Structure formats: C-alpha cells, structure tokens
UniProtKB/TrEMBL annotation:
Gene3D superfamilies: ACT-like. Chain A, domain 2. This is Iron-only hydrogenase system regulator. Transmembrane segments: none annotated. InterPro entries: Acetolactate_synth/TF_NikR_C, ACT-like_dom_sf, FeFe-hyd_TM1266. Pfam families: TM1266-like. It comes from the Bacteria.
C-alpha cells in the first residue's frame, strides 16, 4: 500500500548542494506530486516535497537527501494508506 508524505528540507548552502539535491529528487519523480522551494537572502533554501509511494520509497528518498552535505531533512508520513 502507498502513503502520502511531506519531506521538508533545509539547504544550508544551496550553491553547493542544490545540484545533487535536485538529481536525487529527479530519480524519484514518479513519486513526487508537488514541490515548493523558498530561497532566503541569508543563503538558505527551504524545500517542501509532497510524495506518494511505498514506505520503503519514501524512506529511501529521505535517507538519500539527508546524506547530502548541508541538507537537513524531516519527513511526515500519513497514517492512512491509499
């Protein structure tokens, strides 16, 4: 069964980590339903990604994003299965 999740990420220095971040997200494009990014003048970006998928896929994406230098990630996963 699939679940809905929101992955929140803070990119502390987007000029360094944004390319790798985008490449990882692109590999999960079949799961991504929406994405919003907000750049801050202080040199930080906040990204929110809404995904639908199996728990393993959601956790895999979260883990890969969290392993990128300069990226902090938290994920909220629905209790309901769809």
């Amino acid at each position: 069964m699939k679940k809905i999740a929101v992955i929140s990420a803070i990119l502390e220095d987007p000029s360094v980590c944004q390319k790798e971040f985008n490449e990882v997200v692109a590999t999960f494009r079949g799961n991504v339903r929406g994405r919003m990014g907000i750049p801050f003048e202080e040199g930080v970006s906040v990204v929110s990604i809404t995904v639908v998928g199996k728990l393993d896929d959601i956790n895999s994406l979260t883990g890969k994003l969290g392993n990128i230098q300069g990226v902090t990630v938290k994920t909220a996963i629905s209790k309901m299965e769809i």
